[in-house]
Queue: 3 jobs
Job 1
Amino acid sequence: MITHTCFATEPWRLRETSLDLGVLAQSESVFALSNGHLGWRGNLDEGEPHGLPGSYLNGVHETHPLPYAEAGYGYPESGQTAINVTDGKVIRLLVDDHPFDLRYGELLSHERVLDFRTGVLGRTAEWTTPSGRTVRLTSHRLVSLAQRAVAAISYTVEAVDGPAGIAVQSELVANEQLPAASGDPRVAAVIDSPLLPEEHHAHGTRLRLVHCTASSRQRVAVAADHLVEGPAGTSWAAESEPDVARLTVTANLAPGERLSLVKFVSYGWSAQRSLPALRDQVEGGLAAARSTGWQGLLDGQRACLDEFWADGDVEVEGDAQVQQAVRFALFHLFQAAARAEERAIPAKGLTGTGYDGHAFWDTESFVLPVLTHTAPDTVAPVLRWRHSTLPSALDRARQLGLAGAAFPWRTINGAECSAYWPAGTVAFHVNADIAAAAERYVFATGDHAFHRGPGLDLLVHTARLWRSLGHADADGAFHIDGVTGPDEYSAVARDNLYTNVMARRNLLAAADAVALHPDRAAELAVGAAEAADWRDTAARIAIPYSERLGVHEQAAGFTDQQPWDFEGTAEEQYPLLLHFPYFDLYRKQVVKQADLVLAMLTCPDEFTDEEKARNFAYYEPLTVRDSSLSACCQAALAAETGHLDLAWAYTREAALMDLNDLEHNTRDGLHMASLAGTWIALVQGLGGLRRRYGAGPAVLPPGAGGPGEGAEAPVRFAPRLPATLTRLAFNVRVRDRRLRVDIGRDAARYTLLEGAPLPVLHHGTTAVLDPQAPAELPVPPAPETVEPPQPKGRAPLT
Amino acid sequence: MITHTCFATEPWRLRETSLDLGVLAQSESVFALSNGHLGWRGNLDEGEPHGLPGSYLNGVHETHPLPYAEAGYGYPESGQTAINVTDGKVIRLLVDDHPFDLRYGELLSHERVLDFRTGVLGRTAEWTTPSGRTVRLTSHRLVSLAQRAVAAISYTVEAVDGPAGIAVQSELVANEQLPAASGDPRVAAVIDSPLLPEEHHAHGTRLRLVHCTASSRQRVAVAADHLVEGPAGTSWAAESEPDVARLTVTANLAPGERLSLVKFVSYGWSAQRSLPALRDQVEGGLAAARSTGWQGLLDGQRACLDEFWADGDVEVEGDAQVQQAVRFALFHLFQAAARAEERAIPAKGLTGTGYDGHAFWDTESFVLPVLTHTAPDTVAPVLRWRHSTLPSALDRARQLGLAGAAFPWRTINGAECSAYWPAGTVAFHVNADIAAAAERYVFATGDHAFHRGPGLDLLVHTARLWRSLGHADADGAFHIDGVTGPDEYSAVARDNLYTNVMARRNLLAAADAVALHPDRAAELAVGAAEAADWRDTAARIAIPYSERLGVHEQAAGFTDQQPWDFEGTAEEQYPLLLHFPYFDLYRKQVVKQADLVLAMLTCPDEFTDEEKARNFAYYEPLTVRDSSLSACCQAALAAETGHLDLAWAYTREAALMDLNDLEHNTRDGLHMASLAGTWIALVQGLGGLRRRYGAGPAVLPPGAGGPGEGAEAPVRFAPRLPATLTRLAFNVRVRDRRLRVDIGRDAARYTLLEGAPLPVLHHGTTAVLDPQAPAELPVPPAPETVEPPQPKGRAPLT
């Protein structure tokens, strides 16, 4: 619970007021900087002490054989692990020959600040050496949002109480020693010394290292240059070895004198380009950084973030922690995506090596929905990354005996590397999640070029997968058997409802897309009969429902399963997967994470309001939230079904997952999906933002659906505040407009900030927003409800 | 198809008339000798060429970590692999400095004969050296059935066409080089150089090696002594190194002169006993062997086998191949069990390292039923082995959150080492199979000491497992969810019918046992309420049945699954598990091996005759027989439902599995269960031998159930011959009697060879057999039936 010990609650920044080595690893995650291409964990400048040193380039990974004691057909043979690349952030300091290490001497003060508007991590420290000399240290670090190859550090040391002999060693370090991996199977396997040296260079104030991975043959180049400022007598020398390049600056500081340096670092990697090409690339990046200069980089950072906040800020009145948390969340989401540019957004972004640096469905189902409405320009590149892996997905489907594309459950390079098929291969819903993300993006932005290009490919090949995966029974109902839905405490089920409704949506979206782009459809050999079959199949998809209980079933037969013995389960037996065998979890009614509840969020029009209420009440006492993906979904449906205080409790859990380290693994990196969940809980939950299905075309033909045309379906809101809040306001991008929604206890005000008039559905009332006239609409009182209980001991955290 | 190329069809022996190196590895399996404690593959005396060198001691194994790319709770961490122990059968020969190797020079003749009545493997060969000298070689090899530590070889070489300088090297060789393991996941992992040398010794004609395994810390000692006979000038010398001990005998033979040696070998192993103790043990065994002498060992062998054949011979008139095959099968089953003595019977016996040398449910469900009726004295020791592993099974159940005992799916030392839980951990039926084997043994022998001792422990702890594994639904039906039955192409199902009816039988047998032995029950804290609950649970167990189709379901919902596309499956795509992913097999109607059909064999009174016929007709077209366990069960039910020619075809498939290498993996060892299946198909199938359930107590109280008392349930037979056969006769042990059943086309004759009068049910007619008066009863004609088809391309082999 690091918030409680050393973090200050402030609306626009995360400030650590003292240093607690016990939470150092967590702090490295929350203070991580990234632009989606390059990520630096918030390691101390001097490198040690550390929890986990981390410098990552999106896509750089090593491959390794996946071991199986008993192998099976179609098991992936090769694993992928994101590696710690050359560390460009190390700046070691010696004061009168004492290495600056917070574990020795006396730390008089230490503060770190991550500012969500400047995008800079600042640090100040005052330290007295074991021999009694005090220095003051200031550093500012950024990973440039404007220049994707570039990171930079401004570093200053000042003598305080007497003359000090100072040596500053600014380094590039490859193959840093990493701590041993945890025994928790969910934590990344660490690969030691993954980088083979190819070239090292040091001259003047410039450093460069080039390495290559052994198996994946990815070349990584890093270069650095420095501006040095110090009193007379300041001198420096550069040197290099295969795994380290170092600029050593020495100076004798009188009290009050300072030694400063600015370190520009440029990164590049490629599995294709030659050593000279890559060398030139990083030198070019470095030249650009020098030319921009430190102040220019700061300005660029600020400009990018100003634009982001204008599109997507969320204001929360009544809970300062959540106010801070939602901005922390949005900041990190934006960082993870800003310059990812046809690479994945891993489950941990570029903040740590949890889950081996793999991307999952989290990206399309949690992260992209938020970015679609807050930073839509970052979304298409991520979807284009998925599209670029289509050849792997087509191969994988063929290998599995299926048509279309089967995208991987977890991957870096597009090939499946999930070694446990019941929760990997057969979690086919990832395909519908990808299709939905593509369709959602087009719905929100009207990006028709994307829709007729990669979007259509994604929709068609995933639709074909569903058609071949399922089968019609004697009565014509279409069943999808042997699949695993989002809830990983059930597996290999018949007719997982989430999967089925998402598959339906996928089939219909594909049919809509081919109707809109017949020429492209012809290229993919989609004829009228195939598209008609998709619609027909969508209409016949089985939706499991228990007449006895009057609720939907998570999968066929789910409600007939034995209930889990929650009363007999001790608190320390969570997460259950570490204390009970899969077979026992699978055969009983216990839900790891929102599954049917998520279906009600992603496919709201498949359920009546009454069904939503009954379903939520049924599944809530079965859901243990052993996944960080759950709380936000439960928040959204709790809000929709009128349990506003419960919605708020779940909102807080989602929001504080990393700041309060609720799952005790923030050290491995931030939970991108839970960060996204903060926004989902607030905007989709309390704000009630939903897409309406079946109330107008999902994707408007080019030219149609312009300003206020009748064809356009209204965007739905249903805002209501929990008792804690006095106000919730957010900017949101939707249907190519920019909107502001300002929700008070009694009324909500909708302002169209940018774009053509837009129909909005507010608690069942339609209003057409006009740029000139904000609409203020009353918030009806919440219905009387009885809040469903959670399993014993599993009430919302925080 | 080795039978067709070089094996002669003879009733009492297996004779190889020429040497085909292409089938060398298979021939090593079929010519393997064993006594259940020690096994020698049929490797050539001179060691090379070989398919797989193999010397095994039952229970000797090495452990190794089981790798998981994604581990899970309760996954076994340690694997076990049977190892090739010190080879005591190597006798190398040099003729005029040419090593005798069949790949060089000229092989004039070569014959090997395994005699099922003498228990000796004989070999004769005439060979001309590359330089033109011809020698004649004769060897006889036995693994003693009477002296379990002992094996022996009589070896003679004779100069034929001129003087020959002869050197014979009789060796003990440890850590033989093994061929690389196959890529087939079902074939054993081979562990290289598993033996660490501890002691080597050579003196006079005596040799000794002692080794120890690195991880399992099992000490293996082997000693040999020799009797040498040769012309004047014959001399010898012994020497030893850590991994080899060697007696070299040299002689110059004139034409017609012979050099002979008898090699006695004694083996011992222990994980407990010290090096000196084990050394003394093997020297003691050796002394005993010398004292018995070669002829004495031959006599002992013959005596053991005479007794076995008197109890269990099967005569088949009309198919000479099957006549040979059934004796081959019974011989190998007897070899595998004779002196196993509280060790397992592995799936391959001691004939190869297939399946890592593990024992499965095959033992209790296929091998023991045959031995129970042919060599019952061998059965209790095997069941005592299971009982000795009860502590592991109790631990495993606890780990899985269950009561009672959960015996392993595959093991050597009693700990689970199945690394794939859907076909390991949750194949809980192995527990009912063990209970059934114990109960069956007591039923057949009246061994009340076993019943009130280890039998009761096994029955009670497995009953408790079932009670905790299942649960009652709202209507009171007892369901067992999340389990895998015998069919490995379905998994993690609800209410697998085989499992459920076997669990019912288990619960009732436990309740009967505690009623008979209340004092022992009290020791296990089984009160009246618990036993009553077992009976009540047994009565309420769910039996899945499709009203729509009028057939039982293999598991709940099975008949609603999508049918497998047999028409679209090519012949080379079998076995399916090597060409299709598990999830696709699991979710479709395709049956690897008899499952429901096996239930009809093991629990015949759970089904009416009509249900058996309909069920067999339904499942036959779905069953692909990708397991060698299947054909015999299908044979038995085909016979019972009147498809006599189909029954015969399956009998042949089971019988010729190894002789004809039908699954192309006899090289890895013999299929013990399929060997047993030969007897099952003939005696239970065509003979119709069944236990009646519910028609009298399964186990009679001591003193009761003696000669012809009314309490005793009749033993059921329903003999009928297929068109091919003119006669089928077998001796069988049942209810502590010895019976002979002689079946002709029109009548069957029952003779009580030994024991008190016994009621027999013959095609519905009860006759009480009296020692004085054999009963001859007419065989009614078979009903008219329509033979169900097999899946495309999956007709019975042979």
Job 2
Amino acid sequence: MPADLLLTNIRLPDGAPSSVLVRDGVIRALGVGAAAPDLSPVDGGHQLLLPGLVNAHAHIDKNMLGRPWLPNQVPLTRTIVDYSSTERRLRRELELDAREQAAQFLRVALETGTTHVRTHVDIDTDAGLKHWEGVLAARDAFRDVMTMQTVAFPQSGMLARPGTVELLEAAVRGGADAIGGLDPSTVDRDPVRHIDTIFGIADRYGVEVDIHVHEPGMLGAFSVELIVERTKALGMQGKVTLSHGFCLGQVDEPYLGRLIDMLLEARITVMSLGSGPQAFPPLLRLRAAGVPLCTGSDGVRDTWGPQNKVDMLDRVRLLGWRINARRDDEIEALLAMATYGGAARMGDTAYGLAVGCAADFVLVPGDGPSQAVVDQPPRTLVVKRGRIVARDGRLALPATFGSA
Amino acid sequence: MPADLLLTNIRLPDGAPSSVLVRDGVIRALGVGAAAPDLSPVDGGHQLLLPGLVNAHAHIDKNMLGRPWLPNQVPLTRTIVDYSSTERRLRRELELDAREQAAQFLRVALETGTTHVRTHVDIDTDAGLKHWEGVLAARDAFRDVMTMQTVAFPQSGMLARPGTVELLEAAVRGGADAIGGLDPSTVDRDPVRHIDTIFGIADRYGVEVDIHVHEPGMLGAFSVELIVERTKALGMQGKVTLSHGFCLGQVDEPYLGRLIDMLLEARITVMSLGSGPQAFPPLLRLRAAGVPLCTGSDGVRDTWGPQNKVDMLDRVRLLGWRINARRDDEIEALLAMATYGGAARMGDTAYGLAVGCAADFVLVPGDGPSQAVVDQPPRTLVVKRGRIVARDGRLALPATFGSA
């Protein structure tokens, strides 16, 4: 339900004092003069207005938020297959309800200023479409307060588990925005057939591709080359996301330069969460080259591990600490991955702090965007389409909003 | 002022329900039966009790807490000398008051459950002993609520800046617990004379050594060897701290194994903050080998960079994310660096959650220590020597406590 709002006495990201007038969920005026006699102004306390945060890579169907702490049970070998096998077992044992966990996630996302979420959804021959249906139900429940996209994602492998392709296709027919993929060589053992299969689905149904490539070094780079070739062959430039793409941080010059050129030619977006232990794409270099970038939370408090948070400012700070970003311009470049970069990936052309844009924004204390990233203060106000959805770090909606 | 306290309905780190009875600042009883008719019990709400957090590597004299955001001005070459030169300039221009900034730091430290701080203090020929005197004044003001140690630290170089040695000696005579050092080759350009000088001071005055070694690879390892040799020659086993020691994460086997043996023989503690961009000591391997470990905040919101926080749980989480610590035992091993490991380095033999220990502890929500690390919730109660110094994340002392 788009709303009207007059928010006064705020600072824009460049420091300029302003007010914001919202009519029917759309920013109609910005600047010190914005006024509306029929609206009671909300005083922004001279705080900083940022555009809504964009989580372009989540797994909202399988977190443990609101549940007891779960000791990690993944074998120390820690392969992707170890993680997904452990996850399938625990998912059954714990009787995780994808809709409820998605709602848990989305409520915290709203509290922390996230207005857009692209989520991967596990689809496999154990769970069938149960997670998919749970996430769709959550998406419907949050329709007015969260912009969402879904990726039909073969977390447990695709070719390796017959029947998975048909399930993925069913989800795509059911409205997924993208078809996912996962480590074509190391998980599915057949890079060409894996990538051909998902691009085939994308082409047939007119959806995007968003593929997890954790594969290291030259093996991952070979996957990237195959992805680029098919993106161009099918005319899917601008519709493909390379998620993680650790290999981009692990190959030598001049090959990295050639890979960057390929990504640019295919207009592929790189989604990076960074990585604690591994080398990952050189973010500021990719940005300087013009490669579209976005970021996300990844899975939060799940069977994979406990370190991720829903809060996108936390992700941006982690990226900054990891790449030694100390200057404001560096930190703001990373923040753009969690704002404009993510919104562009999600195809939201009405995103931004400008007249005519959707009124999706977040008010925070802090002298500027870098301080907000570093301090991650409770969000003073979170506004979706003109409606105040969170205040002082707490949901301004019923506490069980979106639960069944 | 040590106090009495009866804290009931808490869980110990192993999950056991308990109460804690404190008399005159000392834990006198633990367990479900602990009681004292003369004290009004404080209900712990079934939350988790952790020993007080220990920040064993801070620079409390030169943060910008409570001041406007300062855009980073360090040249992109980013050498240690660039950082310290920029810092000296800005310190003058901003007229930073070491005592006031130290108090700002220590108040946030208390709010976040830190009960022990070892701080390096800049001593150089520009500032003379001004920072030293400021930190001593803050230490005195916080004497009842914070256990502190000071390191007389030549941040701007020592041999490279004549007159510095004399100032360092003056601080050591004035009560510094340790003499610091800094990159004997890359900053001071003479590793043997640098290390001989600081060990000479330590030997003459009977203080510890705590030396920053950021030097990479084999160059840093050569410094480590020189430090080990002098530690043994002077009988200073157990009294030396290697801070950062990035080189330990940058040398090959079997040399790393030999370095670990040397550290063990000299009973040298390794202080690590991890590092975003650089390889750093392999913490869990060092721990398994028996090398004493501790950690800290480093400088916070200073001219070096904005990414560090005062909160020690934040540091532990960063370490965990960076080394891919996902299991509870791994995360708890890192937390021990910020608790028992730090307290051991600071020589506090009365530290811990046991009868007879000083009543320095922190109460947090969470199912166990790992969840506290990952969630970093506001600290419900922070207790120093039986006295409640913070509650629900806010100081339970006057807001300007410790300021002049």
Job 3
Amino acid sequence: MTFRTLIVDLGERSYPIHIGDRVLDRADLLAPHLEGRRAVVVTNATLAPLYADRLERTLAAAGATAGRIVIPDGEAHKAWPTLDAVFGGLLGMRADRKSVIVALGGGVVGDLAGFAAASYQRGIDFVQVPTTLLAQVDSSVGGKTGINHPLGKNMIGAFHQPLAVLADTGTLASLPDREYRSGLAEVVKYGAIHDADFFAWLEDNLDALLAREEAALVHAIHRSCEVKAEIVALDERESGPRALLNFGHTFGHAIETVQGYGKWLHGEAVAAGMAMAARFSVRLGLLEPAEADRLEGFLLRAKLPAQPPRMEPGAWLDAMGRDKKNESGRITLILLDALGRARIEKAAPVGELEAFLATA
Amino acid sequence: MTFRTLIVDLGERSYPIHIGDRVLDRADLLAPHLEGRRAVVVTNATLAPLYADRLERTLAAAGATAGRIVIPDGEAHKAWPTLDAVFGGLLGMRADRKSVIVALGGGVVGDLAGFAAASYQRGIDFVQVPTTLLAQVDSSVGGKTGINHPLGKNMIGAFHQPLAVLADTGTLASLPDREYRSGLAEVVKYGAIHDADFFAWLEDNLDALLAREEAALVHAIHRSCEVKAEIVALDERESGPRALLNFGHTFGHAIETVQGYGKWLHGEAVAAGMAMAARFSVRLGLLEPAEADRLEGFLLRAKLPAQPPRMEPGAWLDAMGRDKKNESGRITLILLDALGRARIEKAAPVGELEAFLATA
């Protein structure tokens, strides 16, 4: 029962991420934050029977009184009606401003429960207990919370930092294979945009990761969070370098939007989006073709898609034009100069992009 | 066309409040914030025909491209369906993260449009153009935004500071008498909790204020915002002294909740709530009876209610127990030691309170 701790340094909003098997049983990690407070576990119907009782025992041992709100499972529920049900639950149990939300689940639960915390009574504290690889390496750092709107993904939300994150690698054992691999797409993203050595380490250790070996997982999650934290610390409100984290996401969000939420997993869409961004980087003469091939090779070994579905160029551009990172109608893309080095292109050449999309 | 400017000092979130007749025509006040940006006016169906064209001309002169979203008038619409319509409008016009919301209206518009700004794409800028006395002296300072939930008022929201506030006293001319007087309740609150001289000035100048005389209005609004800003600057996130601003509001919110939103105007409920808090202060031996009488006398001269409606003690306590400022089930009240000096009572004596409410 060893674990590693990473401190996300955001001044007075700094917080620890504890990574390892069974960290969700460690009352000592939560007591400093929760002792004497009411802790409301927000989780989904799939995870509640697996982990909620264990977590509530930990909360009790940490000196908190626990409550529980269970939401339906699935991206379709990352929406107002579910958020409204969470607010209703909090009000029904008289949660006050000193209450703490404990988000137990993947990205949907973390984003929705985090936004509930950001906006309930104009903001209460929350703790993240991410139970998917994607959530552990992505939602753990950055404070992004929110819900979808019928007209766009993640269009309503807030930046709200947790008190602490418990990334229990043991919870990944119950993750379906497809979801687990989808999380690996975000892991390899950190290598691709920021750390060539980490990318090479991932290539060398992919088999151990696919076997969900504890030591490899702890390293991969720790380094992913570290890279993300470095970038986020430079740019908490996402006006500059943080955009690098969207590598693969502009194309990926377009895939999710056009295909309909849920058909492609987020990580699968990002995987295809990263491969596209790499190929577009090659087309613009920024990236060596061999580097794009290496990225695609990794994705294929991880059984992740490197090709997008068939979509009309007009549908691509329409969906990409609605991305939050765009300013004044231009399309921002994250491109690669090399594996381990990305750049922000604030006004992607639209003609080139259309030609590229026509053959994508 | 003179005006006064007050800077609300919140470090990097500092912003100016410009107070005076026709400040909404002053493009020079907005250009530094809005030049080259898209400005989306959010207003209601009553105010749009009165001021929206004028404001949009000012925005255009300030170098912004203007859009408009009109919501229905009334507190009943300070709720999710209206907020959702604003999000839909923003997405429909492809508002991006550099877009700015310009909230033109009273408290409902300001709170709702401010929360739309706080949460659209996880936060965009906004400008307040409050058109009621209440909004000019209350919503202008403090950054509180939000909507109501069926189970409680202002239960969903965010702290989000505007870029600037234009408090145009000329817009008060069109305000119905009852709403105008309701705003005076918040004005006298600042005197009662923090500034005995201002309280006395208000007693001396009530006739000029009731006649909506420009000079008296500018002074009253300026000093009200100044008092609020002083208190908010000490305590932006409402963990300490900011609670003083809730003088009259715990009782007042209970009146609004039990009577149903909209039957009593907010300022009317606050007026009765202040009179109750003063009488309860007398009952606890904190305040001289003559001081409570002076406050009641002012309210009555301003034709504001000093008595609550008939309500069961159980209904009072139930509604007061749901107030956001409460911690761990205790009831927090703001009480007076004297006119101009308030205190925060974090655990009001419940037995005394029940006895008081039984005769209220």
